[in-house]
Design goal:
The protein is mainly beta and 244 residues long. The protein is built from two helices and 14 strands. It has one domain: Umud Fragment, subunit A, CATH 2.10.109.10. 12% of the residues lie in helices and 35% in strands. It has a seven-stranded antiparallel β-sheet. The protein has a four-stranded antiparallel β-sheet with strand order 7-6-5-11, with no helix packed on it. Strands 8-9-10 form a three-stranded antiparallel β-sheet, with no helix packed on it.
């Protein structure tokens, strides 16, 4: 075989591999990296997770670079309250955010005296830790961590700052075909409470459902290339952990 033919065959193999990778990434499953502390204590900075693209059907945002190949959403399945979801922010339709779905279309959401209300009913919460520590960016903050229970029985941990917390809000009324998201690290999350930045998220902006972690590193303790510190840097206990 000539050198020219070998180069052609190699290029053809690479092209096929890229096509297969894009197909899998677009249709089935996609890896994501957690860059911020807005979902602590459940998702940590440095977590790598898999998101299933088929869970809620497909829109243009299901594909790399969000090409305008069709309008709306096909094979649509409505997400469930409490799902942890990756979506494109409405402000630019480009940036990926990951938050917890709290409000469905037609719901009312409100904070009163630090308690979360859905459709005028207070969400049940049970104190887990009265003096916990989480990160907010590079800052360590003291929080109270609760187990919150949504109306359908979904349970998860949510944390609120001890010193300065989001206490009261106007009533948010979720529009038709839109969703309301919150970060689990409630006082360190830019989410649907901030209407000019995130606000209500249209169903077409949903990317997929976060399913499980496959890898996790603590970059505050060093770089992954420092193999002699892997016992400190790599969070082995988080491998293949299901996301609740």
């Amino acid at each position: 075989m000539s050198v020219k033919n070998k180069i052609f065959d190699n290029l053809k193999t690479i092209l096929y591999a890229l096509i297969i990778a894009v197909f899998i990434r677009s249709i089935f499953i996609q890896p994501f990296y957690i860059p911020s502390s807005s979902m602590e204590p459940n998702l940590l900075v440095g977590d790598r997770l898999f998101v299933t693209k088929y869970s809620y059907g497909y829109s243009k945002h299901s594909f790399p670079f969000s090409p305008n190949i069709f309008d709306g959403r096909i094979l649509y399945n409505q997400p469930k309250r409490g799902d942890v979801i990756v979506f494109k922010t409405p402000s630019d339709n480009r940036t990926d955010y990951i938050k917890r779905l709290i409000g469905l279309p037609g719901d009312s959401i409100q904070f009163i005296d630090g308690n979360l209300y859905i459709n005028n009913n207070q969400i049940i919460n049970t104190i887990i830790k009265k003096n916990d520590k989480l990160f907010c960016g590079k800052q360590s903050i003291k929080v109270k961590t609760f187990e919150e229970k949504l109306p359908d029985g979904k349970k998860y941990f949510a944390s609120y700052r001890i010193d300065i917390s989001f206490k009261n809000s106007d009533k948010y009324l979720v529009p038709k075909e839109h969703y309301f998201f919150l970060g689990d690290n409630r006082d360190c999350s830019k989410d649907s409470r901030f209407l000019s930045d995130v606000g209500y998220v249209h169903k077409d902006n949903l990317v997929g459902k976060a399913q499980f972690l496959f890898f996790s590193t603590d970059r505050r303790k060093g770089s992954i290339i420092q193999f002699w510190k892997w016992s400190e840097i790599i969070r082995f206990n988080r491998f293949f952990k299901k996301i609740k």
